[in-house]
Amino acid sequence: MDIDDSWDVIASERRTLADLLDGLTAEEWERPSLCAGWRVRDVAAHLSMVSLPPAPATMLREGVRARGNFHRLNHDVAVRAAGRPAADIAADLRQHAASRRVPVVTNYRNVLFDVLVHGQDIAIPLEIDRPMPIPAAVAGAERVWTMGWPFWAKRRLRGIRLVAEDVDWSAGSGDEVRGPIADLLLVLTGRRAGVAGLHGQGVDELVVRLGQPPVSA
C-alpha cells in the first residue's frame, strides 16, 4: 500500500471506530481491553491523541514522571486523556479522522497497524466483529515483522513460520502457524486473542512465546 492508500484506510478505520464507540454503554467503556491495564476508554483516548499529540515539553515532563519507561509513559498519558467524557473522545477521533499529523516518534506505517490492532483491542473483549481490510493487514504485518522495537516479532517468534491463508503473505521459518492475516497481525503485536483463529504445528509454541498480554497500546 502506498502512503495515500494507507491514509485512506486510517481515516476509514477512525470513523468506523468512532461509530462503534458511540454505541457503547457506560459499562462497556470501562471494560478491560486486550492490553493489560488498559480499559476500552484508555485505548480509545490513545487513538484520539495520534492526531492531537501533546506538545514536546509535555511529553518530556511525562517521560520524567514515568522515569524513562516508554510503556508507562504511553499508558499514563492515555489514562489522563481518557478522563474526558466518552462522547468527546469519540468526537475527536471522528473530527480528525482524515488528519495526517503524527507524533514525532512515529510515521504513517506505524499509525496504520496501530489503528487496526487497537480496533481489535476494543472490539474483541466486547464481542463485536470488526473485520480488518486485508491489504492494510498485510502492510501492517510486514511492518511489524521488520521493525524490531517495540514488538521484536522476528526475534520473539524465531523458529515459527507464519502463513496467511486468505492472502499471499508469510514470514519466518520453522513449525507452521496458519490462519487469517488479521489474526497473524494480532499475534505479531503480542495479542494472544489472535491465536483462536490459527492452526498448525507451531501453535502451542506460539502461545508460549506470546506469554502475558501486551502492556502497551
Structural overview:
This protein is mostly helical and 217 residues long. It folds into two domains: 3-123, no CATH class; 134-210, Nonspecific Lipid-transfer Protein, Chain A, CATH 3.30.1050. 53% of the residues lie in helices and 6% in strands. It is built from eleven helices and three strands. Strands 2-1-3 form a three-stranded mixed β-sheet. The longest helix has 20 residues, at 3-22. The relative contact order is 0.15. The mean pLDDT is 91.
Whole-angstrom Rg: 17 Å
Class per helix and strand makeup = mainly alpha
How many E strands? 3
- Unreliable residue runs: none
Number of helices: 11
Domain tally: 2
Percent range for β-strand residues: 5-15%
Largest sheet: 3 strands, mixed
Strand order of the largest sheet: 2-1-3
Please state the oligomeric state of the protein chains shown: single chain
What is the H/E order? HHHHHHHHHEEEHH
Q: Could you tell me how far the N terminus lies from the C terminus, measured between alpha carbons in angstroms?
A: 23 Å
Assign an overall shape: globular
Helix share of residues? 40-55%
Global mean pLDDT: 91
